[in-house]
Amino acid sequence: MRVLLVDDEHELASTLAERLSIRNIEADWATGGEDALRLAEEKTFDIAVLDVKIPRISGFELKKRLHKKCPDLKFIFMTGHGSAAAFKAGAAEAGPENYLTKPVNIDTLIKKMNDVLTS
Amino acid sequence: MKLIESFKPKFWAYQNKTIGPLRREFNLRRLWKLSFLLTALVALVPLIIVTLVDYKVTEKSIESEIILRTSRLVSNTKRAAAFFFAERKAAMNFIIQDYSVEDLKKQSRLKSVLEHLKEGFGGFADLGVIDSLGIQQTYVGQYNLKGRDYSRQEWFKTVQDRGIHISDVFLGYRNVPHLVISVKKDIPSGSFFVLRATLDIDTFINNVIAALEVGSEGDAFIINHNGILQTPSRSHGRILEKISLPVPKYFSRTKVLELNDIHAKPIVVGYAYIADTPFILMIVKQKENIMKPWNKARSQLTWFLAASITIILLVTIGVSTYLVNKIYMADQRRIIAIHEMEHSNRMASIGRLAAGVAHEINNPLAIINEKAGLMMDLYKSKKHLNNEEKITGLIDSILSSVERCATITSRLLGFARHMDVTVQSVDLHKVINDVLGFMGKEAEFRSLSISVNIADDIPKFDTDRGKLQQILLNLVDNAFAALSDGGSLDIIARRKSEGFVDIIVKDTGHGMSKSDIKRIFEPFFSTKTKTGGTGLGLSITYGLVKELDGKIKVRSKKGKGATFTVTLPLKNPKELIKQRGA
Q: Collapsing DSSP states into helix, strand and coil, what is residue B384?
């Protein structure tokens, strides 16, 4: 399984990627939409874990663009919760089952990714 | 005092707050007073003026009616009296013209004349013929007065001059009140003679005075020009005594005066000088008596006025109170609305703030989480580090703290989220736990025991979660305030009947008195004013329950705790469906 992690917090994205690789999951990370798109062109990924709020572009917008490039790519969203309205919109957009609240437990994340890939 | 207190309208205690958003727009006491005074004035002033005018007019008309009636009575009586004397004078004139002096000097003749006079007119007691020297030549009657000399007497001189004389009443030799009529006739020889007749005053009284209707207290009598009573009077002196009233001035016609008698009581005096006699007819009436019909009318008028004023005052008080109460209630509603708005605005701000804070904290929290997780991963993956139990313990403790923080932020976010949302499917269990989650720490510190008992058969139901949350928060907060440390709080939820759920919040706090229970949902009623209560918590709770189409009840006894029961419908209230549709 190859994972693309996108979060504007460099520390979070990198640490999460490292932890995944310790668990033998190949993970690349980006802190912005452009980096993510570039990475997607260079490599192929099975699943993308996107923060809802990233600079200049929303997680959902990024999903659309990534989807164009790699139609088979699956998605999971993470949120730190904005307003109630943002949460509601996010849950609707991502589907409640693909929507995780930060901070995320690594085991929960891996389980979720497996679920999404097998479904 | 208690009675007055219970009649006092609610707005009376309405305190004036002149600043801030809860400012009162009206000075209700002044408004009430103004409304009452104006309405009462507008109604009462014309009424009182009209009544006073009517009073005066009626009094005047009754008075003038009485004067008129008295005057008429006096006139009629005067005519009767004048006629009485004129008749007898005419009879005597007729006699001296018809009979020669020789005839009249005959005892038998004179006697028969007297008989005829007695029969025809009545009142004649005796009859005598007096020659020009004043010596009574012939006399018929009870006494022996023949040969009596009248030449020196005043009346004899008068009759010589005027040809006729009517005397005052006097007792004379007989000691019986009587009067004398004398007529003179000149005889061809140049001399004259006088026919003198005595009249019983009784006949006059019986014929003229007794026939008068002067009422039980009235008095009718005759006086001479010197004020000596010629006929008996009921209350102004005895016959031939001086009258107790002043002698009225001469006036050719009947006159009515208002005087005071010797007892200083007002009287009405009607009088008339009887022409060609020395007599004055007087009719005296006690004003008090003749005004009796007026007294009746006056008391009726007074009662009418008193009753009208009472009714007007009562109606005015009622209407003013009703109107001002309406204003009061409208103002109360206005203030509650403002307060609710402020409250919900505040809650929304708090919600936004909480969401922002939670969001900002969640990101660094996630980093801490990952970093600590990575540390743990590294320790676990590198075997030689694995025995550092102290370090793994520390990392575990960091991770569990992060988890705790995450729970708090997620709860905060969840709570804030529900502030905005209107209607949604609600799990009562969760709402109650959320609310208690916020209050849990305080309960722990104060060692309050909280038990929650929610029946299993309560389904999820559609309602405004934010409002329900706030209702429960207010009730629990209220219970906490009432509880002393170590007290207990029960929250029970059970189905009441088909379609309703009862949520019961029961504390073992200080409870409240009956009078407090009555006012507990009133805005600005607070037993916690000293500790900063606004008196709005429960009134807002009441409003919120109403908005959810529910009911709220309270049972309490002083010192025995309080039980609040909120009954909510499980079926969608129409209002909520509308909101949801919108």
A: helix
Query: What CATH homologous superfamily does B62-290 map to?
Result: PAS domain (3.30.450.20)
What torsion, rounded to 10 degrees, do the Cα atoms B443, B445, B449, B453 define? 30
ipTM: 0.86
B536/chain A closest Cα distance in angstroms: 28
Determine, for residues A22 and B378 on separate chains, whether the beta-carbon distance falls below 8 Å: yes
Across the interface, do A102 and B363 touch by the CB < 8 Å criterion? yes
Q: Treating both helix axes as pointing N-terminal to C-terminal, what angle do A10-22 and B292-381 enclose, rounded to 10 degrees?
A: 50
Q: What is the residue range of A80's domain? A: 2-112
- Where along chain B do the CATH 3.30.565.10 domains lie? 421-581
Q: Which CATH class is domain B421-581?
A: alpha beta
Q: What secondary structure does DSSP assign to B337-378, as a single string?
A: HHHHHHHHHHHHHHHHHHHHHHHHHHHHHHHHHHHHHHHHHH
Of A9, A22, A81, the CB nearest to B381: A22
Residue closest to B426 by CA, chosen among B486, B471, B475: B471
| pLDDT tens, chain A, 119 aa long | 899 999 988 899 999 999 999 899 999 999 988 899 999 999 999 999 998 888 888 888 888 889 888 888 888 988 876 555 566 666 677 676 778 888 888 888 999 999 888 87
